[in-house]
């Protein structure tokens, strides 16, 4: 398997956390509940969209909260660093591309599209006004390169943020092949190593899955633009409660076949 895929050892309980979208309050609440439940031997998979279109303070606090809980979980006696995985979401894919946007054929159009997908909150989080950035994107390659350098420097000034971004995986799977974890989409006609940007933008392909994918019992995703809430079907499970968009954050404990054992949410 490619280095961009995270192998996870099978376990009696695998916790998954849906799309967060920069909602620090929701994440903190779920983490408080998880801390009372998660134990050594469990696995923990975050399904992407950590950055989001929230306030600057909330977005930064969300990433800091993820780093703190990772430290807490790994510090538990008997927990290995391989027991936790962070997937790259659409927000993180855009954040990575934003740092290289000077190489895009039409940077202005690309940034305009990113704004429709929630990148404004991320730019504000690191001290940049989206409207001003929008104007820079039409000033030529040199001006854009200067800005991307400034933006990357601002990201690095927040301890652990760049390191987390660079460590994200495109997907995860249990080594027995029974469970696959993705951010938003999966092309059922291609093997896991043959997916392209479907992981982030192929939500409709995920929703079209009606048959078993290889030997996988269930495919789990964390983000959906069209279906919020817990969506459970025979071979798929969608865990987007609408956090950061007026909804709640969902975390689930799954057994080795992808059946739900326990559910916690950010509401009361």
Automatic annotation (TrEMBL):
Protein name as it appears in the record: Serine/threonine protein phosphatase
Domain of life: Bacteria
């Amino acid at each position: 398997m490619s280095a961009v895929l995270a192998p996870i050892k099978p376990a009696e309980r695998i916790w998954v956390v849906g799309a967060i979208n920069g909602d620090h309050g929701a994440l903190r609440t779920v983490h408080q509940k998880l801390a009372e439940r998660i134990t050594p031997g469990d696995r923990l998979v975050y399904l992407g969209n950590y950055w989001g279109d929230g306030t600057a303070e909330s977005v930064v606090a969300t990433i800091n909260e993820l780093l703190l809980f990772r430290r807490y979980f790994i510090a538990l006696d008997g927990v290995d660093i391989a027991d936790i995985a962070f997937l790259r979401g659409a927000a993180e894919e855009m954040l990575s591309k934003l740092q290289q946007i000077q190489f895009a054929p039409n940077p202005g159009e690309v940034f305009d599209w990113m704004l429709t997908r929630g990148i404004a909150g991320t730019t504000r989080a690191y001290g940049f006004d989206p409207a001003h950035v929008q104007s820079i994107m039409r000033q030529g390659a040199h001006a854009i390169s200067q800005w991307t350098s400034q933006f990357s420097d601002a990201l690095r000034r927040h301890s652990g943020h760049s390191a987390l971004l660079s460590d994200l995986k495109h997907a995860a799977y249990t080594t027995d092949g029974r469970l696959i974890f993705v951010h938003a989409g999966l092309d059922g006609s291609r093997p896991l190593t043959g997916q392209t940007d479907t992981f982030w933008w192929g939500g409709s392909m995920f929703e079209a899955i009606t048959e078993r994918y290889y030997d996988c019992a269930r495919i789990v995703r964390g983000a959906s633009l069209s279906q919020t809430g817990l969506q459970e079907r025979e071979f798929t499970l969608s865990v987007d409660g609408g956090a950061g968009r007026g909804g709640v954050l969902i975390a689930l404990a799954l057994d080795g076949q992808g059946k739900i054992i326990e559910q916690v949410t950010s509401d009361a």
